[in-house]
Design goal:
Layout: H1 12-23, E1 27-31, E2 37-41, H2 42-58, E3 66-70, H3 75-86, E4 90-93, H4 100-110, E5 114-117, H5 122-128, E6 137-140, H6 153-157, E7 174-179, E8 189-193, H7 194-204, E9 217-220, H8 227-230, H9 232-239, E10 242-245, H10 252-261, E11 266-269, H11 271-284, E12 293-296, H12 303-310, E13 315-321, E14 328-331, H13 336-339, H14 343-350, E15 355-356, E16 361-365, E17 379-385, E18 407-415, E19 421-426, E20 431-433, E21 436-438, H15 440-447, E22 453-463, E23 467-476, H16 484-491, E24 503-506, H17 520-526
Parallel strand pairs: 1-10, 3-4, 3-5, 4-7, 5-6, 9-10, 9-11, 11-12, 12-13, 23-24
Antiparallel strand pairs: 1-2, 7-8, 13-14, 14-15, 16-17, 17-18, 18-19, 20-21, 22-23
């Protein structure tokens, strides 16, 4: 016997309708690419979203068409999220940090027919144009004053009607797409559905997750091209949260100005962004009177950042997910009894990736494929499943899931009895030494506690006896000049002996990937053929 409930589709336009009905006067603030601060309300945005959707319809955009965008977090790209999806088309957010070759690949692979871009990326778009097979329309995300004779967004929507009757369609219709960073081969396309993103929006707003609500002010530093800014273009309107978009200025000073002037109490970004803000605070002596919490993801949260922001009254919480997970899998919201502990005692918990959102199942398996216990000790390959987790890659003929329907994340992890996840490393980055596994992440995070270390990366290099041994690659902090021996001695009480690096090498710059992660592949190229001292 089935229930007798209405079968209404879960569409992202319903989030917009809800926001306009309940939070129409909530602000959306942007530091624009052109410079000035732009300020309007959710109600204002809905009228412009309707104008953009009508412009698309009048230009012949059909359900399923792919609309590409290379842009910063701004109100115009926010409008694209709802206008494109609302007519059944697909918004393809393109990461400019992929580089020209990979950017051209993903635009062609997605078969984008339109390409919108912020003027910052006009040179990139100009270089890409001869190589783009399907793009027929190029629109600059600006006005006629700044468009350099290109067709511009404001003119594109100017004459359109600011009301629209949103169509209804299957909730499993594709809504947005993102590509993986392409660090191992070509980027892979992940195609999200309306249903998946609406369900994740509900789950992400729980007290055990983002826990934001009307009256909160959120600044998403994480880009919209980095898996939809971790779902915030949906979760903020759903809950009536004021959004503050940073535009192109992601430096410490630029972020501080908005955090302070807009009284932001929640922000989200990768560790490199948080590090830049912390360095700015320490250099200037300024405080953060409004910011209370920050979500850190993309790579492991270093203890040095947790302690650094704790001094300013800001709790950094770690989240974990993947492009293939839409992206949120876990958020580390500490139980009240642990949150009340002194920082030294709560630190082991705060450095974990957190507990999974509802409907996200997790397990760890050994090399033999057998499921391992969640006892806080066993580590193995992390596999996941759930309603917003990938089933197949776009245009892929290879098998994506395990035979029993789980997605293998490529991470090595531990899960404890209380459900807390701890990522120990990427499977390809774990260092095998003398039959034991050593986590490169653990060494990197320990090194970042040294005040002379600005950035750290760890790779394994050949050893004739132990197979591999770790070396630590360091960018020195400004004004500091630590020696290799000094850093190794600093690490010894913090790591098991097997994890002590055999050498420390200093570089001017550590290569970072499109999402701010240390590119271990590039480090291995830089140190190819490296011979350990002695």
């Amino acid at each position: 016997m089935q229930g007798l409930m209405m079968d209404r589709p879960l569409l992202t336009t319903e989030i917009l309708r809800h926001a306009v009905r309940n939070f129409r006067n909530t602000e959306i603030v942007t530091r624009t690419v052109e410079g000035p601060i732009h300020r309007y309300t959710i109600g204002d945005s809905a009228k412009r979203i309707a104008k953009l959707a009508n412009a698309f319809k009048n230009a012949g955009v059909k359900q399923g068409d792919r609309i590409g965008v290379i842009g910063w977090n701004t109100y115009r790209q926010f409008e694209m999220y709802y206008a494109v999806a609302g007519i059944g088309a697909i918004l393809h957010t393109i990461n400019p940090r992929l580089g020209p070759e990979n950017a051209a690949f993903v635009i062609n692979h997605a078969e984008d027919s339109w390409l919108f871009y912020d003027m910052t990326f006009e040179p990139l778009v100009g270089a890409l144009k001869p190589h783009l097979k399907n793009v027929k329309n190029y629109i600059a995300l600006t006005d006629s004053k700044h468009a350099n004779d290109a067709t511009n967004y404001e003119d594109f929507i100017a004459s359109e009607n600011e009301t629209i009757e949103w169509p209804e369609f299957d909730e499993n219709t594709a809504v947005t797409m993102c590509y993986t960073s392409g660090t191992t081969g070509d980027p892979k396309g992940v195609l999200y559905s309306h249903r998946a993103l609406v369900l994740q929006t509900f789950a992400s707003l729980l007290p055990s997750a983002l826990n934001v609500a009307e009256g909160d002010v959120l600044l998403p530093v994480v880009p919209m091209f980095h898996v939809n800014a971790w779902n915030t273009p949906y979760s903020c309107p759903m809950s009536g949260v004021k959004q503050v978009f940073p535009g192109p200025r992601l430096d410490g000073e630029g972020l501080y100005e908005l955090l302070d002037s807009e009284k932001v109490n929640y922000s989200a970004g990768v560790p490199t962004v948080w590090l830049g803000l912390l360095q700015y605070l320490e250099k200037t002596g300024k405080e953060l009177p409004y910011l209370k919490k920050g979500l850190c993801g993309g790579s492991a949260l270093p203890e040095a950042l947790v302690r650094g922001f704790d001094k300013y009254g800001v709790e950094l919480q770690q989240g974990w997910g993947m492009t293939e997970m839409s992206p949120i899998g876990t958020v580390n919201t500490l139980p009240p009894d642990i949150a009340a502990l002194p920082i030294d005692k709560r630190m082991p918990y705060q450095l974990k990736a957190g507990r999974p959102l509802p409907f996200v199942d997790m397990r760890i398996v050994g090399e033999d494929g057998k499921v391992l216990p969640c006892d806080g000790e066993c580590d193995g390959q992390l596999q996941v499943r759930g309603p917003w987790i990938i089933k197949d890659y776009y245009k892929s003929s290879s098998q994506t899931l395990t035979d029993d329907g789980w997605f293998d994340t490529g991470d090595v992890a531990i899960i404890d009895e209380d459900g807390f996840l701890q990522i120990t490393d990427r499977s390809k980055d774990v260092i095998k030494t003398g039959g034991e596994w050593v986590s490169s992440i653990e060494i990197e995070n320990a090194a970042l506690l040294h005040d002379g270390v600005a950035q750290a990366g760890v790779i394994g290099v050949y050893h004739p006896k132990w197979q591999e041994r770790p070396i630590l690659i360091v960018v020195k902090a400004e004004g500091k000049d630590p020696t290799p021996d000094e850093i190794i001695e600093f690490l010894k009480p913090k790591l098991d002996k097997i994890a002590w690096p055999d050498a420390v090498e200093f570089v001017d710059e550590i290569p970072l990937g499109a999402t701010g992660k240390v590119l271990k592949t590039e480090l291995r190229k830089m140190f190819k053929g490296y011979e350990l001292p002695g």
